[in-house]
Design brief:
Elements: H1 2-17, E1 25-28, H2 30-36, E2 45-51, H3 56-72, E3 76-82, H4 89-99, E4 103-108, H5 113-120, E5 130-135, E6 138-143, H6 148-163
Parallel strand pairs: 1-4, 2-3, 3-4
Antiparallel strand pairs: 2-5, 5-6
């Protein structure tokens, strides 16, 4: 009996100590991004963040985003869209592996940004970080770095608007 309890305890400890599963980085076209970003009618908040490893404000805000996403649990889904060049794929994947963000990770095969950026968000100047938060048909758009508190407030505000 004691041996069985010990083995169960040891198994649980080993499971708890195992490293989190790394999410792969996928190179996608703008057409695939449009499909990923189509509005969804479910009870999930979708947080789309456009960033790059070379962008200091982007890298600084991502831990705040991850903390908020983890706090909301399954009520929120974060999608990170890297603006790095494809030749920097390994660097981006390494950064994501090192930080273990709870997100789906994409690297956009850009094409001509003058064509696709206004199709994504007309008022987007091209600056990053850029964030779009969607809940149902409601949406919030923001260029520039966001604090954890600001992000939480915007998510809560969006949820309230949608539910009223």
């Amino acid at each position: 009996m004691k041996k069985g309890i010990f083995l169960i305890g040891l198994s649980l400890l080993l499971l708890r100590c195992s490293p989190p599963k790394k999410k792969p980085l996928e190179v996608i076209s703008f057409a695939k991004l449009q499909t990923i970003m189509e509005p969804k009618e479910d009870n999930t908040v979708y947080l789309y963040n456009f960033w790059a490893t070379w962008c200091a404000p982007c890298v600084k805000e991502l831990p705040h985003f991850d903390k908020v996403v983890r706090a909301y649990g399954d009520d929120i889904k974060m999608i990170l869209v890297s603006q790095n060049e494809e030749k920097e794929f390994v660097e981006v994947q390494t950064y994501l592996d090192d930080n273990q963000y709870r997100a789906d990770n994409y690297l956009l095969d850009k094409g001509n940004p003058n064509v696709w950026m206004p199709m994504l968000k007309e008022e987007w100047s091209g600056a990053i970080p850029m964030t779009i938060i969607r809940y149902g048909k409601k949406e919030f758009f923001h260029e520039g770095k966001m604090s954890e508190e600001f992000l939480r407030n915007e998510i809560d505000k969006l949820k309230k608007e949608y539910e009223n």
